[in-house]
Design brief:
Largest sheet: none
Shape: flat
Helix content: over 70%
Order of helices and strands: HHHHHHHH
Distance between the termini: 10 Å
Number of strands: 0
Length: 197
Amino acid sequence: MTSRKWVRLFLTTLLVGAISTIITGILYGYKEYFNYLQDSHFTKLLIEVSFLFILGLVFSAVSQMGFFAYLTIHRFGLGFFKSSQLWNTVQIVLILFSLFDLAYLRFVKFGEGKSFVGYLIFPLVLIVCSLVVAYIKSKETNKGAFIPALFFMIVVTIVEWFPALRQNDLSWLILMLVPLFVCNTYQLITLHRTLKS
């Protein structure tokens, strides 16, 4: 990859992160933003949107660090295990372990007096959306890309999402997860297209 292509991917991912955070923030807190518009508090609205924009840049930077870390780990894994089949098996085990952690360990830590079913929502949504992204990646490249793409979209996203998971605040969980997932998807789907261009 040339430096020009890398800079383009970096800047467009920053923009994707900022826009997806603004949209997520507005959709999640639409009543508050609607009240700002009704009361003609445009300055407050501008401050809130600016905050979401900056937050989106931060989420995008976290996503990009995770993406390039995964590219390194993937190469290391292929070299260490000497077989893509064995490396894929290891990735599947790590995917299952991460999803178990996301559901059960969060329930143990934060779910006192609550139903376990509620703690299955995020893992289920994450795996369904990740399966779609991994399918698209494998269709556009090759079948061997499915497991690595699934691993990246689930395990790396969960690792990047860890600061919000520690807080266990629903608004922060959603506000961070959506942009991270969108940025990760964008990078994964755009990489092979960028390399071909």
